[in-house]
Design brief:
- This is TRAF-type domain-containing protein.
- The protein has 290 residues and is an alpha+beta fold.
- The chain has three domains: 79 residues, Zinc/RING finger domain, C3HC4 (zinc finger) (Herpes Virus-1); 60 residues, no CATH class; 131 residues, Apoptosis, Tumor Necrosis Factor Receptor Associated Protein 2, Chain A, CATH 2.60.210.
- Strands 8, 9, 10, 11, 12, 13, 14, 15 and 16 form a nine-stranded antiparallel sheet that branches.
- A hairpin with a 5-residue loop joins strand 1 and strand 2.
- It is flat and about 70 Å long.
- Bound molecules: 2-acetamido-2-deoxy-beta-D-glucopyranose (4 copies) and zinc ion (2 copies).
- One 2-acetamido-2-deoxy-beta-D-glucopyranose (NAG) binds next to loops.
Length: 290
């Protein structure tokens, strides 16, 4: 894929893999509980056993690759600038997008569109309507941030670093899942579990991977405990997560949440987590007091 980032890796016998394939092999090995091996020579591969090959990276950067918009060939090293700034077919948006024009099209049609665009001649009243709609959308996006800020003024807030570690179920077909050691937040004992979850049955064959997780209260409580919780990148791992706030009322009988999505930005990122063995994140729990 033209857009996939180098560097490349090589096994101890010198066989090459691009970074994406390398991470995918490590993630697959984790799912199958096998040692990852080089597809060419079957020698062991791992992050510490494999190294970058700078000569190959340089050579590859000079190979021609195709622009996704105009289909012309460019040296890989020039492609990014071409696609961003120079390609006549790159996708652009009308300059009146700010006042609601939805037009999108190739760069070479942009000037023609903008000359004919009806948005600049709309009346104040028409624009007011459009701006109202845009405000609504923006407001929805802001809600997440506002909720985080209001949670931050709660009386009881706890957070901790959590480490998800890989385990196997004892079922006939064993499955990979993750669990953290017990930890204490807000003077209660908790555990987090996570599992690989995707639309297809067989996660080792699927390219689209997601993770979901649940929060489990291990302490006995006498009165219900209403909480908001959220997982974020911690200080030790570079995980790309879109923050999502979840709510749950823990009681003595109802002491675990459903599995909810761990909002990792995409399945490439998910493979990186699977390849990395342990997953380190930071958990926040906000206790809602009535
Ligand atoms: C924390 O819990 C223990 C027992 O579980 C209790 O003795 C202690 O008072 C609690 N501390 C706070 C600050 O609630
Ligand atoms: C994937 O896993 C399933 C069940 O765990 C197994 O039957 C299947 O052979 C595996 N496929 C590959 C390609 O490893
Ligand atoms: C958690 O809930 C289950 C099922 O409702 C219950 O059997 C168990 O005792 C609860 N655990 C604690 C620590 O309250
Ligand atoms: C996957 O997770 C979603 C929510 O994250 C859940 O609704 C769904 O049931 C899960 N699927 C499986 C197979 O666990
Ligand atoms: Zn182009
Ligand atoms: Zn326009």
């Amino acid at each position: 894929v033209a857009s996939f980032p180098f560097p490349s890796s090589q096994c101890t016998n010198g066989h090459l893999m691009c970074a994406g394939c390398f991470i995918h092999l490590l993630a697959d090995a984790r799912l199958k509980e096998e040692q990852a091996t080089c597809p060419n020579c079957r020698c062991e591969i791992s992050k510490s056993l494999c190294c970058r090959n700078l000569a190959v990276e340089k050579a590859v950067s000079e190979l021609p690759s195709e622009c996704g918009f105009c289909m012309r060939q460019f040296p890989r090293s020039l492609l990014e600038r071409h696609q961003k700034e120079e390609c006549q077919d790159r996708v652009t948006q009308c300059r009146y997008k700010r006042i609601g024009c939805p037009w999108q099209g190739p760069y070479h049609e942009l000037t023609g569109h903008e000359a004919e665009c009806t948005h600049p001649t709309k009346t104040g009243n028409e624009l007011m309507e459009i701006l109202d709609e845009m405000d609504q959308t923006h407001k929805k996006e802001m809600q997440l941030y506002n909720s985080i800020f209001s949670l931050l003024s709660f009386e009881k807030i706890g957070y901790t670093e959590v480490q998800f570690r890989p385990y196997r179920t004892d079922d006939f077909i064993t499955r990979l899942y993750y669990e953290t050691p017990r930890f204490t937040v807000l003077n209660q004992t908790w555990v987090l579990k996570a599992r690989v979850n995707d639309s297809e049955r067989n996660p080792n064959l699927s390219c689209k991977r997601t993770l979901s997780f649940q929060l489990i209260l291990k302490s006995k409580i006498s009165s219900p405990m209403e909480c908001s919780f959220l997982l974020l990148k911690g200080p030790y791992d570079d995980v790309k997560i879109n923050p999502v706030i979840y709510h749950f009322i823990f009681t003595s009988e109802n002491n675990e949440t459903e599995y909810v999505p761990l909002p990792i930005i995409d399945s490439v990122e998910c493979n990186k987590l699977l390849a990395a063995k342990n997953i380190n994140l930071r958990l926040f729990i906000f206790q809602i007091q009535k």
